[in-house]
Every structure is written in structure tokens, then in C-alpha cells.
Specification:
Length: 416
């Protein structure tokens, strides 16, 4: 009689799952961190990258790879070359991998001012330790960008839409500067998403996203992604493996699921942001509104030519920065006076969020970035526009009641 295996062996070696004949409509979540092989030769071929497949969760995972490929398909819809993607554990992990891959000791990078606070810290506090120098310029004037280029400039770094001024980058102009310099053009397109703009179509070499924001869209997962030419993405994969910025399969599942509703969410958010910005700009307690959909914004005409449009008109993004009269204290009071908009981190979720910029997202930059001490950034969610306008109007009315006096100055981003 055949002797059965012991109970512990039986518990460990359960019957394998048969591959389903039907295709699942929902993306499977492969949580396995280790993969088996038919023999040692197959294992060795995987280690030598002589065959495709999966060996270890820290190297790659089917769910994670599916998310990266999905973003590549959206960003590369009309790109002139093939597009591949690489997923990371966060947006900053993606940015870090890009900069560490293509910068060496003695290299130089040009970046906008203001730039995302984490990116600014990475460049000035981390990469500077390893001999990387940087030049920062106002990207509203390409001559200033060109003036920062050096013979050792390897990356021109840009943001499609900056935070919090909502400045619009001239990606085509930056492409020409990067090509003359022999540098890569890397664009953080987190605030735009592929629904608003696809930088690869305008000359960018690599596009990065904090997928935590709009791509996931529900404030329940964390991740980042970079897309671009397959040869560049392959180099990023090696650095990700060496530095450990791997995206988990569960987060990859949530992020990829968010992509299915991305156009619906972003289109609605952009339409609401346009109405919101136009209404708030008329309030007497408001000194300035930064939103590229307003005719007075310095990037308005550029956005009209660069950004996508639909039945609702041009999409100008879903973040609006409101600066009241009264400086720092007025900005804090405005944020604290909101009842529908939540004081919260991040952007891109279903709920509208507000953040007093100077005390939260950009303390590293301060006044050098031209950020007003009273600025409050609104990440518009899926609520009704009328409710959001009433909410901010109540908070602004309270500022007037507290003696905040309007002056005659109008900021360049104001639509008033």
C-alpha cells in the first residue's frame, strides 16, 4: 500500500490551481513572491535573462507588469515610438530611479522652480552628495531654461502642470533645448494624466507619474510609474531592482483598476475645476487664482494648444490654487473654514481636498519659489460644483467679516 505523505507535507503541497479556460475580466492579483521552475536549467535561464517569465516578486510580478503596461498604452497612444513602462512603489521611487539611472557624478540637471517638494529635496539634499549639480529656472521663459544648460547637462526635468502655481510647461520648446544639449527630457505628468496631455507625443523621452494620485484615484493605494522608450525603461528596471523600489501586487491591482475610470473622473474634475476657478476669482476676498483655464493665467494659450479637449472643452487640469488677501493667516483661515473640502494630503481622489501650501506641501521652497504665503491648493473631486463653490464662498465671506480688505492688485493667474 502506498504510504501517504505526512500531514505537514500534505498541508504545504496542496493541489495546484488549474489555469482557467475562460479569460478573467478582472485583473488577477498574483501575491506570490517566489516562482517555481521545471528544472534547474530553466531557473538558470531566468537568472541570466535568457528567457522571459517571473522568478521573484522583488524582480517582477504579473499584476505589477500589467499595470505598467497599461499606463504605457495610455501615455503612448499616439507616441512616435514604442512605449514600455516600469512600476515603482511610489512616485518618488520612480523619480529617484530615473535620476539615479541617467545622472552620474559630475552630471548636471535643469529643473523648474517651483518643482514638487520631494523632487527638489532629492536633487538638492541627496543627489548633490554624489556630485550631481543642478540649475533651477522659471520655465515660463525658455531663455532662462536655456541659460541654465551646461555642457554636462544630462536631464531637462519638467512638470506638465506645476504644483501649486499650475504653470504649464512648453514641452515642445523644452524638447528642442534638450536635443541641442544632448540631454533627456523627463516630464512629471502627475497633475495632467494622459487624459489632459501625453508628453511623449510632444518630444519627452520619459514620463513619470505618482500613480497614487489620479491614476489610482481613490486614496487607497500607493505607487509610481515611468514610461518611455523600451531601452530607457530597461535601464530603469535594473536600478529599481538594485534599490528595491518594487510596487506590491495589491497596490498594482488597485492602480490598474483605477485606470478604467480615469477618463471619466478626470474629465468631470476638469470641468468642475473650470467652473470653480471662474467663480472663486470673482470674490472680493480673493487676490489671485492660479488655474490655466482662466484667460489671465500666463499658461492659458499654451495649454489650449498642448492639452486635450472634449465635448466639455479643453481640459486644464483639476487643481486650483486660491490666494486670499491677508497673507499666511488668511490662507490658514480659508482652509480651516471649509466644510465640504477636506484638509488632507495628496490630490486626485474622489473627494475635494484643500491644503495651505506654505505650511504643508512646499515648506522646502518658501518665498524663493514665488509661492504666496496665503495660497491654498484645491484638488477638485467628484462633488457637485455648486456645493464646492458655496463651501469656499462661505469661508471667503468669513475672511471679509474678519476684516480682510481687498486691494486693487490682480495676480497674473486671476480671471477677474
Amino acid at each position: 500500500m502506498r504510504r501517504p505523505n505526512g500531514e505537514n507535507t500534505r498541508a504545504v503541497h496542496l493541489p495546484p490551481l488549474a489555469d482557467p479556460r475562460q479569460s478573467p475580466l478582472g485583473l488577477p492579483v498574483w501575491r506570490s513572491s517566489a516562482w517555481g521552475f521545471s528544472d534547474s536549467a530553466e531557473y538558470a535561464e531566468m537568472c541570466d535573462e535568457k528567457s522571459s517569465g517571473f522568478a521573484h516578486g522583488g524582480v517582477d510580478n504579473p499584476t505589477t507588469a500589467a499595470f505598467a503596461a497599461a499606463v504605457a498604452s495610455l501615455e503612448g497612444a499616439a507616441a512616435p515610438k514604442d512605449v514600455a513602462g516600469q512600476a515603482f512603489s511610489s512616485g518618488m521611487a520612480a523619480i529617484t530611479a530615473v535620476l539615479m539611472t541617467f545622472l552620474r557624478a559630475g552630471a548636471h540637471i535643469v529643473a523648474p522652480i517651483p518643482v514638487h517638494g520631494g523632487t527638489y529635496s532629492l536633487i538638492t539634499n541627496v543627489l548633490s552628495r554624489f556630485g550631481v549639480s543642478a540649475g533651477f529656472a522659471d520655465y515660463g521663459d525658455l531663455s532662462r531654461v536655456n541659460a541654465e544648460v551646461r555642457s554636462n547637462t544630462k536631464i531637462i526635468y519638467a512638470e506638465t502642470l506645476s504644483n501649486p502655481a499650475m504653470a504649464v510647461s512648453d514641452i515642445r520648446g523644452l524638447y528642442r533645448i534638450a536635443r541641442r544639449a544632448g540631454a533627456l527630457l523627463v516630464v512629471d505628468s502627475t497633475f495632467a494624466t494622459p487624459v489632459v496631455c501625453r508628453p511623449l507625443e510632444h518630444g519627452a523621452d520619459l514620463v513619470v507619474h505618482s500613480a497614487t494620485r489620479y491614476l489610482g484615484g481613490h486614496d487607497d493605494c500607493e505607487g509610481g510609474v515611468a514610461v518611455g522608450r523600451p531601452d530607457l525603461i530597461a535601464q530603469l528596471g535594473e536600478v529599481r531592482l538594485d534599490t528595491g523600489g518594487t510596487l506590491s501586487p495589491d497596490d498594482a491591482f488597485l492602480l490598474r483598476r483605477g485606470l478604467a475610470t480615469l477618463p471619466l473622473r478626470v474629465r468631470r474634475m476638469c470641468a468642475t475645476a473650470m467652473v470653480f476657478a471662474a467663480a472663486v476669482a470673482k470674490h472680493p476676498a480673493v487676490r489671485r487664482v492660479d488655474y490655466p483655464g482662466l484667460p489671465g493665467h500666463p499658461g492659458h494659450q499654451l495649454a489650449r494648444h498642448l492639452f486635450d479637449s472634449g465635448p466639455e472643452g479643453t481640459r486644464y487640469g483639476a487643481c486650483v490654487t486660491v490666494t486670499p488677501h491677508g497673507g499666511y493667516d488668511a490662507g490658514v483661515a480659508l482652509a480651516d473654514g471649509l466644510r465640504i473640502a477636506s484638509i488632507a494630503t495628496s490630490v486626485g481622489g474622489t473627494r475635494t481636498k484643500a491644503a495651505h501650501v506654505a505650511s504643508t506641501s512646499h515648506p522646502q521652497l518658501g518665498g524663493a519659489a514665488g509661492i504666496d504665503a496665503g495660497a491654498v491648493r484645491f484638488s477638485i473631486g467628484l462633488e457637485d460644483a455648486e456645493d464646492l463653490i458655496m463651501d469656499v464662498t462661505r469661508a471667503l465671506d468669513a475672511l471679509l467679516d474678519q476684516g480682510v480688505a481687498p486691494d486693487s492688485g490682480k495676480g497674473p493667474g486671476s480671471g477677474r
